[in-house]
């Protein structure tokens, strides 16, 4: 597959909708689900979640950690009562990573009308809505999204992306990655606050999860716990990487193996469709040498809900080294991800 040119990357199609206004407009069109406010951001912006399907009863007697201590997770979630899987999909954890926001809005359109905003059908919306409880968050970090004044990063240079997404220090130098995580919260040290952060300078991926600083983080973890989420997927941009699901640290080996099984399934289907996807090798042991891996938001989501918790990193189509995807492949990849989530969890065929 040939690398696209910068000029091609800048021709933004009609289905690439990801602004806060686009989200507001899309939520007004929801008829088959329900829209509710999940939280209010540090900057006073509403964070909406779209719910499809009835909330599932679990006859809960303990939280997930205590149920594990008792040796039986049914004390937390008794799936024999109702076996409808609960799937949580989250866009815009980092407000400058626009691909996931656009993908969630396309998924909502597909569930409402049968096709995404391109007119493509990859899922049977009726069957999905019959068999799943879906929780869709178009943008978890509206503060960061409001701070990024573009609707596309395709064709941007790496330096431009770093400025918009990670920001700049007080001396004007770019925060970059991973140095933008070296000081947290970053607010008082930033000359320009990038889209990674809420208005208090907190990157939700690396909040203090046992005592969260951000109300947004608290609300997301509470949602995962109350809903006993079976699968959560955070949609992130990964510069010019090959699309991939990152390994989640500090989770049981059985869950890691299940995640690998899903990744291999996604790889097979992606190959058949001419979509680029990378399967990461299974990491059976965390932190045996060197700096331990981060216990990040994906790890925390598992430990409150017991579910498979994943971070999906997509190519961003930058004018930078590495492979460069166009709008169509980025959207096809996300819609294939959603389709395979439904097929894998657990009975849509």
Condensed summary:
It is built from 11 helices and 9 strands. Strands 1-2-4-3-7-9-8 form a 7-stranded mixed sheet, with helices on both faces. A two-stranded antiparallel ribbon has the order 5-6.
What would you note in describing this structure?
This protein is of the alpha/beta class and 349 residues long. It has eleven helices and nine strands. It has helices spanning 6-9, 20-28, 64-69, 99-113, 125-131, 142-146, 158-165, 215-226, 253-272, 297-305, 327-344, and strands at 34-40, 46-52, 86-90, 133-137, 167-169, 190-193, 231-237, 244-246, 308-314. The chain has a seven-stranded mixed sheet, sandwiched between helices. Strands 5-6 form a two-stranded antiparallel ribbon. Strand 1 and strand 2 (46-52) form a beta hairpin. Helix 9 (253-272) crosses helix 11. The longest helix has 20 residues, at 253-272. The radius of gyration is 19 Å and the shape is globular.
The rounded Rg comes to 19 Å
N-to-C SSE series? HHEEHEHHEHHEEHEEHHEH
Q: What's the β-strand tally?
A: 9
With strands numbered from the N-terminus, the spatial order across the biggest sheet is 1-2-4-3-7-9-8
Shape: globular
Q: What does the main sheet amount to?
A: 7 strands, mixed
Given the structure, what is the number of helices?
11
Structural class: alpha/beta
Helix content: 25-40%
Taken as a percent bin, the fraction of beta residues is 5-15%
* Terminus-to-terminus distance: 30 Å
What is the averaged pLDDT score?
A: 94
Extract low-pLDDT stretches: 1-9
């Amino acid at each position: 597959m040939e690398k696209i040119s910068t000029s091609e990357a800048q021709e933004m199609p009609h289905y690439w909708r990801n602004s806060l206004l686009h989200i507001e407009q899309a939520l007004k069109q929801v008829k088959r689900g329900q829209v509710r406010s999940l939280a209010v951001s540090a900057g006073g912006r509403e964070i909406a979640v779209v719910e499809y399907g009835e909330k599932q009863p679990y006859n809960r007697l303990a939280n997930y950690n205590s149920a594990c201590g008792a040796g039986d997770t049914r004390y937390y979630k008794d799936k024999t009562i109702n076996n409808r899987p609960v799937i949580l999909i989250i866009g815009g954890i980092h407000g400058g990573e626009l691909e996931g926001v656009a993908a969630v809005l396309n998924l909502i359109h597909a569930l409402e009308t049968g096709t995404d905003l391109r007119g493509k059908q990859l899922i049977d919306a009726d069957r999905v809505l019959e068999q799943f409880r879906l929780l869709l968050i178009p943008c978890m970090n509206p503060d960061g999204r409001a701070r990024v004044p573009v609707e596309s990063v395709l064709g941007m240079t790496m330096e431009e992306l770093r400025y918009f997404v990670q920001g700049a220090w007080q001396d004007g130098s770019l925060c970059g990655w991973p140095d933008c995580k070296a000081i947290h919260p970053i607010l008082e040290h930033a000359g320009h606050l990038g889209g990674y952060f809420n208005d208090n300078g907190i990157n939700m991926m690396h909040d203090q999860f046992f005592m969260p600083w951000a109300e947004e983080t608290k609300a997301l973890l509470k949602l995962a716990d109350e809903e006993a989420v079976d699968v959560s997927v955070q949609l992130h941009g990964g510069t010019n990487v090959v699309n991939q699901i990152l390994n989640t640290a500090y989770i049981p080996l059985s869950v890691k193996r299940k995640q690998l099984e899903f990744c291999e399934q996604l790889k097979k289907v992606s190959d058949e469709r001419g979509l680029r996807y990378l399967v990461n090798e299974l990491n059976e042991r965390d932190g045996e040498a060197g700096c331990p891996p981060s216990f990040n938001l994906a790890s925390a989501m598992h430990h409150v809900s017991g579910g498979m918790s994943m971070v999906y990193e997509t190519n961003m189509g930058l004018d930078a080294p590495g492979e460069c995807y166009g709008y169509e492949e980025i959207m096809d990849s996300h819609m294939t991800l959603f389709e395979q989530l439904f097929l894998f969890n657990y009975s849509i065929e």
